[in-house]
Amino acid sequence: MAKNPKILSIVLAGGEGTRLMPLTRDRAKPAVPFGGVYRLIDFPLSNLVNSGYRQVVVLTQYKSHSLDRHISQVWRFSPLLGSYVSPVPAQQRLGKHWYLGSADAIYQTINIIEDVQPDIVVIVGADHVYRMDFEQMVQQHIESGAEFTVAGIRQPIEQSNQFGVIGVDPEHPNMIKNFQEKPTTTTGLPDNPNQILASMGNYVANTKALFEALALDEKAADTKHDMGGDIAPYFASRNEAGVYDFNSNEIPGSTATDHAYWRDVGTIKQFYDAHMDLIAYVPEFNLYNQDWPIYTMSGNLPPAKFVHAGRDRLGHATDSIVSPGVIVSGGEVHHSVLSPNVRIHSWAQIVDSVLFDGVVINRRARVYKAILDKNVVLTENSTVGIDTEHDLARGFTVTPDGITVVPKNTIVDD
Ligand code: ADQ
């Protein structure tokens, strides 16, 4: 391996995100707004850029229009300086099919990787909220001699069917003995039977070995062409897979509270909870750590404004994140996330909720424990999340935990 290996990063951004419906009705999961001003893809891309990796291809596929637009508007680097983030849509390059799985998506992009000729490929998912210095993982990968390294994090054993489960070799704790994708039953870790070591879906691979694995996988009969389901187990079976412990990743400016924070936001409940983590008194995930910034661009917007519209109409927000372009005029907001251009009018109440761009809450309307997608309008006196039976009857999504989701552009009129 060269002293300064050439690194190409690949972001897998083609997932459908069916469990996030209706937020993924019109957009790819990585394009789902998060934390007021961001989209999910801003997290992996910020991590890559902060790690010093500026040659990035983003593999898109499903409803990728808003994702492509966001990448080209926000993440345009100077190709002159050798830095780029390029969206690569599925192209049916190697046959008349869309990408079958994440491994096939990379295989179909092989010509782009060959053009760059990297020594190492860093492959990351696009659906998680976290900070990570990939350079630390790459260093361990090189030192360990593994052909393929998987980032691992401890998770409760009950969730093993949602993750790739890593079995570590007790004699060589940096190497993977076996890898099972989303097993229905598994055993816990030797030092804690209630936990497993889960794959984070982030991989570092030597390019040559990866190409060989992908080419074999492409021809195999019994495969889902999936990085977690097929490629990671292939390297594990050859004793060539290493594991990188995410807990050892050091981020400048992080605190004991948000060290090694990582959330899969694949379901509405997880997505909602991760928002609540942002607004906790001591945030579980600190957006304000400028030593490892999360980048985005939310347009040329004026600052947020709070209007005292009358004696009992003191427009205010507490324990909340309020984005640029918002006006809270005579309404109350508590423990909520407001995205740009939201309007809250007199006597309205918003509690424990997440409002996307352009939402309008008219007078005396009330919102509790809800996610309102882009441009939702609540007419005067209407409610969301107050009566979940009524929400269901109106066709809104209500999770078993009582989170109501109102789809994009809905006019809520009781
Ligand atoms: P999942 O997230 O269930 O598990 P998958 O649906 O393949 O796996 O998604 C992984 C990433 O690839 C996501 O970012 C997704 O958007 C993207 N993706 C999926 N299909 C794609 C395609 N055809 N083209 C481009 N991108 C695609 C994975 C691993 C598990 C691991 C969890 C961690 O398989 O082993 O534990 O991530 O959340």
UniProtKB/TrEMBL annotation:
Query: Glucose-1-phosphate adenylyltransferase/Bifunctional protein GlmU-like C-terminal hexapeptide domain: from which residue to which, for each copy?
Result: 302-406
Q: How does it assemble?
A: Homotetramer.
Example GO molecular function term? glucose-1-phosphate adenylyltransferase activity
- Which keywords does this Swiss-Prot/TrEMBL entry list? ATP-binding, Carbohydrate metabolism, Glycogen biosynthesis, Glycogen metabolism, Nucleotide-binding, Nucleotidyltransferase, Transferase
**What does it catalyze?**
alpha-D-glucose 1-phosphate + ATP + H(+) = ADP-alpha-D-glucose + diphosphate
Among NCBIfam families, the record links this protein to: glgC, PRK00725.1, PRK00844.1
Domain Nucleotidyl transferase, by residue range, is 9-278
Hey, which pathway is this one from? Glycan biosynthesis; glycogen biosynthesis
User: Per UniProt, where does alpha-D-glucose 1-phosphate bind?
Assistant: Y99, G164, E181, K182, S199
* Name of the protein in question: Glucose-1-phosphate adenylyltransferase
**Role noted for this protein:** Involved in the biosynthesis of ADP-glucose, a building block required for the elongation reactions to produce glycogen. Catalyzes the reaction between ATP and alpha-D-glucose 1-phosphate (G1P) to produce pyrophosphate and ADP-Glc.
What Gene3D superfamilies does this protein's entry cite?
Answer: Hexapeptide repeat proteins (2.160.10.10), Spore Coat Polysaccharide Biosynthesis Protein SpsA, Chain A (3.90.550.10)
PROSITE patterns to which the protein is assigned, alphabetical: ADP_GLC_PYROPHOSPH_1, ADP_GLC_PYROPHOSPH_2
Domain of life the protein comes from: Bacteria
EC number(s) per entry: 2.7.7.27
**PANTHER family cross-referenced by the UniProt entry:** GLUCOSE-1-PHOSPHATE ADENYLYLTRANSFERASE (PTHR43523:SF2), GLUCOSE-1-PHOSPHATE ADENYLYLTRANSFERASE-RELATED (PTHR43523)
Please cite one Gene Ontology biological process associated with this protein.
glycogen biosynthetic process
Lineage here is:
Bacteria, Bacillati, Actinomycetota, Actinomycetes, Bifidobacteriales
Which family does the record assign? Belongs to the bacterial/plant glucose-1-phosphate adenylyltransferase family.
Q: Which organism is it from?
A: Bifidobacterium felsineum
Q: Which InterPro entries match?
A: ADP-Glc_PPase, ADP_Glu_pyroP_CS, GlgC_bac, GlmU/GlgC-like_hexapep, NTP_transferase_dom, Nucleotide-diphossugar_trans, Trimer_LpxA-like_sf
